[in-house]
UniProtKB/TrEMBL annotation:
SUPFAM superfamilies: Cupredoxins. Coiled coil: none annotated. This is Cytochrome C oxidase subunit II. Keywords: Signal. Residues 1-19 form the signal peptide.
Amino acid sequence: MKKSLLIIIMLGMIAILVACGGASDDTDQQAEGDSNEQEGQALTITATDFEFDQEEYTVLAGEPVTIDFASEQGTHGIGIDEFEVNIKGDGSATFTPEASGEYEIYCTVPCGTGHSDMKSTLVVQ
């Protein structure tokens, strides 16, 4: 009885490991395919305590934009409502702005007394 139970447990663990290993490979291939398909503009935004590294960022309309976001001091995030961008902590997001205009970039993580003033502008030309 104990031997049968041990065999069943071992087979179950092997099945779980095989399932987890297979999903990892598919995800890596999908991520590589997505990055090749979405060539375009790269935008790096860095946050420090209560400010972004630039007051204004400029991109072109009709071309994909990939934002790479990093916090150098404190914990921050960025949001751009019109493009459904919401990054909390370090991360990235890709979107395609179709219309020219100015759009507010703001911090999405309450970071202290200067949080409400932590804003910048995305200019789409």
